[in-house]
Amino acid sequence: MAQTCEICGKTSIAGRKYKRRGMAVRKGGAGQKIVGKSPRRFTPNLQSVKIILKGSVKRASVCVKCIKAGKITKAA
User: Fold this and answer.
1) Tens-binned pLDDT, residue by residue, of the chain (76 aa)
2) Please, are residues 49 and 62 in contact by the beta-carbon 8 Å criterion?
3) For residue 58, what is the domain's CATH number?
């Protein structure tokens, strides 16, 4: 499946992008108002790396969170 971490199974999730109008209160304005919402996707930060999986070397899409946590062993 596309956009999926092969270690933890993290996938893309749905979200929204908000369009705002007006000046922020901290800048001296009356506050920002939401005038539009459009759908978007939040995708995981996947990297293609060579890993050792079950004794064999395999190229896999792994999220950076798993790489930093040391959940994989990189192949040479």
Assistant:
1) 589 999 999 999 999 999 999 999 999 999 999 999 999 999 999 999 999 988 999 999 999 999 999 999 999 8
2) yes
3) 2.30.170
